[in-house]
Design a protein that fits this description.
Layout (H helix, E strand, L loop, with lengths): L20 H14 L23 H19 L5 E4 L11 E4 L1 H10 L3 E4 L5 E4 L2 H7 L4 H8 L10 E4 L2 H31 L1
Antiparallel strand pairs: 1-2, 3-4, 3-5
């Protein structure tokens, strides 16, 4: 399993960033989206997550994100600056990416990525917020997060999985159909009320 450090052109001749954290962030984005041998691949490339074509080239990534990176590092420090996708069900591209603190990243993971929870009885729940789900079902949020990231097999005999891209699209369709059905029911009720 070859990492991109060994196959991408070395950029130090043009901007001297090859050994920086910023460059490694770009490299890790490509690795987790492309390399099936990486543990994190199942959460990125395995879910259909990729990066925009322009970011195949480091210079384009630098032009899009470097100035904001420097500003964030200046304010919060380099160790507290990470690349974060705003919508975790969408790909890496400029409009869907921001520099975030570690706390912001944790909050984003728990509130913008759909997951399914399977109870010990086999009942399936779909949720967007790990913290709320934990509170509603008398669970601990960190343990749910560990299950979702492959560090635990279960929590209180519940199983947890992030939705795949296909499952997410199916769920969106289901919600839209449900919304339209509710609108029709409300319209019909208004008509009935008008006839009374």
């Amino acid at each position: 399993c070859k990492y991109y450090r060994t196959v991408v052109p070395h950029p130090s001749k043009t901007h001297g960033l090859a050994d920086t954290r910023f460059y490694n962030i770009w490299r890790h984005v490509k690795n987790r989206c492309n390399l099936e041998c990486m543990d994190s691949y199942k959460y990125y490339g395995g879910r259909g997550i990729t990066y925009c074509e322009e970011w195949e080239n480091f210079d384009n990534f630098m032009n899009d994100m470097y100035q904001e990176y420097l500003e964030h590092v200046d304010k919060f420090g380099e160790k507290n600056t990470s690349l974060d996708r705003i919508d975790l069900n969408k790909n890496y591209y400029k409009e869907n990416c921001r520099w975030a603190t570690n706390k912001e990243q944790v909050e984003n993971r728990s509130t913008t990525r759909y997951f399914k929870a399977i109870s010990p009885d086999g009942e399936v729940f779909i949720s967007l917020n790990q913290m709320d789900f934990a509170a509603e079902h008398n669970m601990q949020y960190p343990n749910i997060n560990k299950c979702l990231n492959g560090h635990r097999n279960h929590h209180k005999n519940w199983k947890f999985f992030y939705l795949t891209k296909e499952e997410y699209n199916e769920y969106k369709t289901y919600l839209e159909n449900l919304r339209q059905a509710n609108e029709i029911m409300n319209m019909n009720q208004e008509i009935v009320n008008g006839l009374e």
